[in-house]
Write a structure and sequence with these properties.
About 60% of the residues lie in helices and about 5% in strands. Helix 1 runs antiparallel to helix 3, helix 2 crosses helix 3 and helix 4 runs antiparallel to helix 9.
Length: about 280
């Protein structure tokens, strides 16, 4: 049911925020996996601007509950349903435009808040283990067996990796260009036609919902589908052309986060096979 789905998503969002606070409070000696570019970028803006965090949180809550609101409005008739749908899409577009403004015209990422990457249970220290005589061995004593303390400086050297896993160990220590960039440099600012493409991409769901409302009497009409798909495809091509002209190296000069976001948007275009006239005339 939509209510259960929305409740689980909201609970997961709240739980992620608690996990993030716990991980941030862990001592620096606890090993953590390196953060992804998406996590670094979104955490930077969320910590730098409280308004960004509030708007991003409101956007995710709208996305998690939109189906519930639509199903509730559907009981009052199709006219009320489409009014609610357009209102929700308009509210989401306002949130996205505010995020675009707060990030100095940088393209949006999905989701706009950091995702959970670390489970605190995996970073907890191991419980003391009992020796053959029943005495508990402290964690520090056991860990000393895996490292060597230099007698003069007192510094300890970590244990060497397994001989069969040396390649993976070295690869994990290699830094890429994205690893040394400041978080806000992980996305290029959109200007000119790139900014226009991003704004049209944000407004696309609103225009599509309004077109669906206008031709709601004919579910097999291709006009709403062509308008929505045409806007999304046009925005994608316009953004890619802007990258080719403005970014050094063209599409090859994009950061990993930009390539990941383009890939996500490309895969999301596949959902047009399950929408509107395409579903009613072909997929169904």
């Amino acid at each position: 049911p939509p209510a259960v789905h929305s409740g689980v998503q909201l609970l997961s969002l709240y739980h992620d925020s608690l996990v993030s606070r716990v991980v941030d409070r862990l001592p620096s000696t606890v090993p953590r996996p390196p953060p992804t570019p998406h996590s670094r970028y979104t955490k930077y803006w969320a910590s730098r601007s409280s308004l960004y965090r509030q708007v991003a949180l409101a956007l995710q809550m709208l996305q998690y509950t939109e189906l519930l609101w639509e199903m509730a409005a559907r009981r009052r008739g199709q006219k009320t349903r489409w009014r609610v749908v357009i209102f929700i899409e308009f509210a989401k577009a306002v949130c996205r435009l505010l995020l675009l403004r707060l990030t100095n015209s940088r393209p949006l990422v999905s989701p706009p808040l950091p995702e959970r990457e670390v489970d605190p249970r995996t970073t907890e220290e191991e419980e003391p283990q009992s020796d053959w005589n029943g005495m508990d061995t402290p964690v520090s004593d056991r860990s000393s067996d895996l490292s060597w303390t230099m007698p003069r400086t007192g510094l300890s050297l970590p244990s060497l990796p397994d001989v069969n896993d040396v390649s993976n160990y070295l690869i994990s220590k290699v830094l890429t260009a994205d690893d040394i960039k400041p978080p806000k440099a992980l996305l290029h600012r959109a200007t000119g036609q790139g900014q226009l493409a991003e704004v049209l991409y944000i407004l696309r769901p609103v225009v599509y919902a309004m077109a669906m409302q206008k031709w709601r009497g004919d579910k097999r009409s291709w006009r709403p589908w062509l308008i929505g798909f045409g806007m999304e495809y046009g925005c994608r091509q316009l953004a890619k052309r802007d990258f080719r002209e403005r970014v050094a190296g063209g599409l090859r000069g994009l950061t990993g986060l930009e390539r990941e976001e383009l890939k996500k948007r490309g895969w999301s275009m596949g959902w047009w096979m399950m929408r509107g006239a395409f579903y009613e005339n072909i997929t169904k």
